[in-house]
Design goal:
The structure is a homotrimer of 291-residue chains.
Chain A (H helix, E strand, L loop, with lengths): L19 H18 L2 E5 L5 H11 L2 E3 L4 H10 L2 E5 L5 H16 L4 E4 L7 H11 L5 E5 H7 L19 H11 L2 E5 L3 E4 L5 E4 L12 H14 L7 H22 L3 H14 L2 H5 L2 E3 L4
Parallel strand pairs in A: 1-2, 1-3, 3-4, 4-5, 5-6
Antiparallel strand pairs in A: 6-7, 7-8, 8-9
InterPro entries (chains A, B, C): Hyethyz_kinase (IPR000417), Ribokinase-like (IPR029056)
Protein name (chains A, B, C): Hydroxyethylthiazole kinase
Pathway (chains A, B, C): Cofactor biosynthesis; thiamine diphosphate biosynthesis; 4-methyl-5-(2-phosphoethyl)-thiazole from 5-(2-hydroxyethyl)-4-methylthiazole: step 1/1
């Protein structure tokens, strides 16, 4: 295990963006930590995907909990290993819950993930997301349009659909990572994951069927929180976020092989989230430059 | 393609209720428009079925979005191609959202569908539905008991179960269509779809397993909104609504073939919503008189 | 059919805890009553599991309805055969709905089930559950940590995970049953079901995969309400609650045989909830002493 952490990599100390050997070992370690830790992950998420998010977390090896009451959200966030805030069906109750949960997570040093679903399309949640991103999320995960809109670039996508490719969002992602201090992940054909210090990773694999079932990206946000929950203090959040993406992508790739359509794909994807090995996961993570 | 629109058919201009050739071509065209248009459909629906509704819309070829906040519901309804209002778990927040979304849809000429789940059984939602039906829905979809209750005939069903057959509701459906200006669809063994001008279509196919999984009828309401979203101005909403029913029925019939029970049926149904062809859909739509 | 009811069993009148023959016949009768009655079951449950609870009830042979508005919850509870109150994502609206629904159920002599999800972990819902348990639930169902916390013993589990085994909760369950007047069920490897008069049953079977998908235990709460809904006045709620557990366990055991992981298990479980026979169910219920 040779993950390098918390420092910008140089020619001498390659870190996660260096030789694939180091990186693969770091991803394998991240996967092992998740499976060993079975972290409790508090999810404030949207009502469309709340079930599949819980099932994806259980299958991947975590223990999900989905509070709604603001008082419970705060208490649970403080007790959890990681927190997800997903704005997909935000209402006033959940907005209150998110604010309190983020406060409790910060107080307890619990890592948290912001998923700005459809930010840039809908004004109300765009304002909420812009407030939240100033509260030091550990990671932000979205599609290209969402990340660009959160960074203040571009006018957003179409509902939950992106109207941009991942590379269109590369500069916005780096800027957002730098200003927010979060690892920023852009989901797409090849995912891009950028650290606040500018290091980046790419995640390949996956399946186009992932865009034909609801909750694929939203559940990924929960898995990101799970991987962050089991990242040790000396660990690298960039690797954790990329490993989460690779875990979900590896499962999707395997699930697509036998699927007859989106329904059977979604079922097999849960089976495969359970079945994928650390090596399956590590095989999909590449240094950013190699994308 | 030979759909006749917006006029009562006569002996000379058979329209959708005329020779099957014309009708089949119109249904094929409606299906093609859905698949080509991939419309954004805003759904205010109940929390039991919100996930399966999103998945059914994605599988059928649309892009769903499910807002909860009233301000977002209004903005999204105005941006969408179609809107579904389903009262299955209505609370005060969703009642507010529905009112605003319907207003925004009307202002933006977005077609909208009312699904009066369990109206006639529960007084609170019956009052809400009777208000909404006066606001010019493009279509109303329900089971026989719901349609009868909304039309002011009969005392409603039992929960979401109908206690009447489709034909029991034929007069109520025609009356409701005429007074509301909506296409009214009654789901049952053979579905009945009635236009405000009295023309009607029937949709066969389907499977009894559709009553053994939650969300089958509710998701159909979303698919109706998707078909209406891609109906051109010169198109016929009656054909669009019937095509939506036939799309869902065709998928159900195919799914039932290999299903071992309600769980595997629900999975296969999503696969088949993706797989069914325009011809599969057209084969299930008949002139109303032939029922 | 020889269920003994409402009396503490003695050496001479063995009742459900007596010879297996009597007990098996009582379970078979309970299953037959469910299938014949197809009861309407009102569920106030959490948004994570609301869909799978509805599907499990439909598959098992009941008709679910999930209101959210407090006024509707009260009206529906009074119309239903059984009521479930599950606090998994309780908010102020649902707390109000639960209070009114329990009142309506009591007034209409409708049996109701309390599922104290994560009580003992989160203070807010612990207080709500302690209020509700004083309102004479017909049954309480939870894992060992939840039952212990509700009985005022122990500090609760971890999210929805129990940190205790079933036998750790045996004394707490008996105490809670005696003080509340409810049949108390503790879910675990072998379930324990205890009547207020101290009689008990055990339910075997099931699958560890039941802990790898969300909603397994929560849906069980709904099935318990369904079995209680079709228990005749002279019937034994202890047998009904045990039969519900055995129905769910039998389906899980059969589903696990062909499952490739948690996704396919969840699908097959719904198929098997429909397919299991009264004999499958009866085979899993044992007198309490034989555990």
């Amino acid at each position: 295990m040779a993950a390098r952490h918390g420092t910008t990599t140089t020619g001498r100390e390659p870190g996660p963006t260096g030789p694939d050997g180091d990186l693969a070992a770091a991803v394998v370690a991240a996967h092992g930590a998740l499976r060993a830790g079975r972290p409790l992950v508090a999810c404030l998420t949207n009502e469309v995907v709340v079930q599949v998010t819980a099932n994806a977390l259980l299958a991947a090896g975590a223990s999900p909990a989905m509070p709604r009451h603001p008082v419970e959200a705060a208490q649970l966030a403080g007790l959890s290993g990681g927190l997800l805030v997903n704005l997909g069906t935000v209402d006033d109750v959940q907005e209150d819950a998110a604010g309190r949960a983020v406060g409790a997570a910060a107080a307890a040093h619990v890592p948290w993930v912001l998923d700005p679903v459809a930010v840039g399309v809908l004004d109300h949640r765009t304002a909420i997301a812009r407030d939240l991103v100033r509260r030091a999320p550990t990671a932000v995960r979205g599609n290209a349009s969402e990340v660009m809109a959160l960074a203040g670039v571009g006018a957003g996508g179409r509902g939950t659909d992106t109207t941009h490719g991942v590379d269109d969002a590369a500069a916005a992602a780096a800027d957002l990572a730098s200003t927010s201090g979060a690892v920023v992940a852009v989901s797409g054909k090849v995912d891009l994951v950028v650290a606040p210090d500018g290091r980046s990773l790419r995640v390949t694999g996956g399946s186009a069927l992932g865009t034909r079932v609801t909750g694929f990206g939203c559940a990924l946000g929960g898995v990101v929180a799970a991987y962050l929950a089991t990242t040790p203090p000396e660990g690298d959040p960039l690797v954790a976020v990329a490993a989460a993406h690779a875990h979900v992508s590896a499962a999707a790739g395997r699930a697509a092989e036998g699927a007859r359509g989106p329904g059977s794909f979604a079922v097999a994807w849960l089976d495969e989230l359970d079945a994928v090995t650390a090596e399956d996961v590590a095989a999909l993570v590449r240094p950013g430059a190699a994308a």
